Amino acid sequence: MQSAYLSQGWAHDARVTVSPTGIITSIETGADASASASTGASVSASATASASVGARQGASAGLPHGAPMEPVLGLVIPGMSNAHSHAFQRAMAGNAEFRSSARDSFWNWRQNMYVLANRIGPEALRIVATQLFVEMLKAGYTSVAEFHYLHRPGSGAPYAGANPLWEAIDEAAATAGIGLTFLPTLYQTSDFGGAALKPEQARFALQTDAFVRAVEERVGAERRNGVSTRRTGAAFHSLRAVPLDQLREAAVALRAIDANLPVHIHVAEQALEVSACQRATGRRPVQLLLEQELLTRHWCLVHATHATAQELQGIAGSHAAVCVSISTEANLGDGLFDTTRFLKAGGRLCIGSDSQSTVNPAEELRWLEYQQRLRKKRRVVLAAKDESHVGTRLWRDAALCGAQVMGQPGGAIAVGHRADWLVLDASHPAMAGAAPEQAFDRLLFAGADKAIRDVMVAGRWVVKDHRHAGEQQLQADFSRAMRDLSKG
Ligand SMILES: [Zn+2]
Prior knowledge:
- This protein is of the alpha/beta class.
- It has helices at residues 30-36, 106-117, 122-139, 164-176, 208-225, 244-257, 271-281, 285-291, 309-318, 326-331, 339-344, 361-376, 390-406, 439-445, 471-487, and strands spanning 3-6, 9-12, 15-18, 24-28, 42-45, 75-78, 80-85, 141-148, 179-186, 230-232, 234-236, 263-267, 299-303, 321-324, 348-351, 421-424, 452-457, 460-464, 467-468.
- The chain is globular.
């Protein structure tokens, strides 16, 4: 590799070896690399790879054994982890940006979202999700956590046997070539206090025992098959959608299945949700969650927008992560997460594309920083003691934290991690004159997301020269699916 951002910082002329399953097995840098690699800077497939992992500039499917490796020209950085996504909402992006009442809010947006949720079937979902996952890859996300609560065909009985709405997501991720953490999501009530689901929420219904059993089956199958890009976790939609006794029972059962299982939950996104929780329980949602003493480093609290200073301290102390999606939180008028305070408390933070109004990690991270600049009337607010470049700090930490809470082995270019990385074209105008140390700053603050030229997941190139192999066919399918969905 010409220049690569490794876990210890930028390195030049690195030689990286990747196993047949896409895991990095060795990294040599500088003098070590030039002594052992006659071709100089390169990415090498392991000698044990069945047909090599295709980790060669210009190769899309793989190399025959013994073929010489070409150097990866450009700046190689870790792929970003997308820790929160609802794939079906891609079909709604840009379609709710008109005034429909004097007080448009999250809550009437949600009614529109339910209309779409009740219209989409497995085939349309597969196409929409595949399109979305290709867009994610091209923007720099190499894995995604799909927080999935579309469970039933309609208001009637659940599917018998395999769930085609779940399989649609699995297939979409496999077709696109993105790492997937699938989070079947428990959804049982329409509000705090056990209020019954509304008719428009009927498709989301899932019983606790069926939920735990389904997670257990998927985890068992993954252990047997050992697919390195796929992982199952679990999610609770929110405290208003899952009664506390059910949440506790399920959390304990999930921990028995896998002590490292990723567990995600939406919490304190909206001010109304906080007041409803207080009325029903006498507690604020984050406070209520902290009191259960269930949180571990495998938990991810999505949004936590309306957490108090004390609650932020509590989350940081629990080692659970927070996932923010600034683009969605802005689009829905949620409010501002206090990133500065949370990071100061030692909190772990990752990002997600959530409602898909923006599918661009550079933009998410740019606005994470800009929110703080606007609030504090200062610059370079989220740089760290160990990293003065704010772009580097935000990308590095979000990629790694996201991978950890998704149970994915990506997030860094290091031995034992999966070979999920992006190549920035150093000759792109947005990168002109940039030293490697400025690459992430250019990515976040100067439009260098357009310089993401190649994308690798698990040792395979999934985007080459800005193109995904399936995108042309996909475009036609996606246009047709969107036309059908708009007809209702
Ligand atoms: Zn969400």
